[in-house]
Amino acid sequence: MKVVTSEEMREIDKLTIEHYRIPSEVLMERAALSVSKYVLERQAKNLVVLAGPGNNGGDGVALGRILKGKVKNIKIFQLFPDDKLSEDCRKQIEIAEKFKISLIKSFPSTRELQEADLIIDAIFGTGLRRKIEGELAAFINLINSMKKDVIAIDIPSGVSSDTGEILGDALRATITVTFGLPKRGHLLFPGREYAGNLFVEDIGFPDELICSDRIKTSLIDKKTALSLLPLRPLYSHKGNYGHILVIAGSVGKIGAAKMVAKSALRTGSGLVTLAIPSCLSIACHSYVLEEMILPLPCNGQTISAKAIEHIGNFITEKTDAIAFGPGVGINADTEEILRFLLNNSQCPLVIDADGITILSKNMKLLEHTKAETVITPHPGELSRLINISVKEIEKDRIEIARKTAKELNTTVVLKGAPTVISDSDGNVFINTTGNPGMATAGAGDVLTGIITSLIGQKLSSLKASILGVYLHGLSGDIAAKFKGYHSLIASDITDFLPRAFIELKDEMDK
Length: 510
What we know:
By secondary structure, this protein is of the alpha/beta class. The protein is built from 22 helices and 17 strands. The protein has a ten-stranded mixed beta sheet with strand order 8-17-16-15-14-13-12-9-10-11, with helices on both faces. Strand 4, helix 6 and strand 5 form a beta-alpha-beta unit. Helix 2 packs across helix 3, helix 11 packs across helix 19 and helix 19 packs across helix 20. The longest helix is centred in the C-terminal third of the chain and has 23 residues. The protein is elongated, with a radius of gyration of 26 Å.
């Protein structure tokens, strides 16, 4: 499913009305009808509708009319004067008056709000640009303080539909019912928290518009993940599923390397080799079972640049994908190894953690690479890489990921809430799985192993990243059901990967 900005949604609206000749009144009626079922499900007896000046307010007025006789008490409050109303909103008020439905031209009193068992937020829609201040801000804060059941039409008033930013103050909705396609503000924090449970309703926009390739941002849902899941033919062997080389770990950070390797195996890799400093090989041998070990020359703490010849021989003969960076250390030796991989590897390369920090110190490393690359930064790592603040990244993570992927000619997996992926052509994908329990040390290492494994199983870097982040989050969600948020650790994500695959497989078999 595509995800749109307010401008993209306006264009869809405009073309639907002008080219496909579906009147705006018809779209508004369908929108109100689609919201009405959520109201009736709640069996509200005292309904308050807050109608703003634009088409969102028109939706609210139409909803109140449709629910006449179906809800015991309905009060529709017109919060703005007549001269501020849009044409479509004014038309809906005229229709309501013909149905003998009167609008109250004021804000509801505190008592009227207290008596309501459901409030409809139809104040502002997706076009809001300015901050909500003054009397309206105080009114919104009053409703929020009452913790009322609120249904937002299209988007909670005060949430930026493009960034999820709170424009001054915003209503907290129990659920949000939007139309045609989700908006970015529904999915990006903090707007995602204000939206509550999101429902997307079809009100008649043509498929050609809502599925257009001109819309470059999409949602990663279960359907998307299923379409990318690698097949496992009955007649196959371990060589069919990729040999992964994990170059990771240093003194004090061997756990990162182990987590990458183990998650790659759990994701389906046929073979995984763990390339680590030789000084850690005895400790590592005592832990690993299914993985193979490639001990490399050591400088006392990290892998030495003297390992390059060994790595070169190995990747020429045996490797389908490489993971580089988790716990590998940051020094001249590891920078030289990364330079060698970027200049010489014929197979895809997933760069994470220390690998990204090495890149940030010498961006020229990416300029002449022969390898197909994926970088998997969290906001702090991306901040160092592109030299902008974490705050700026979080304010618009979709566009930052898109710009970075284009400029660096790589696939970017920007981890966080939510994780977003961009390819170098500007296509962005927003993940829908994951939970706060996954904010724990090592969770990113697990993701690196998952993505690298899927690349080794012949998925493109982009498809492996899309499926990888979904599986990673799904496994974390399943783990949280058993472990809770507070006790969840990174190895739990790996341990519950089998259940994540089973859940997808069961869905596929339906």
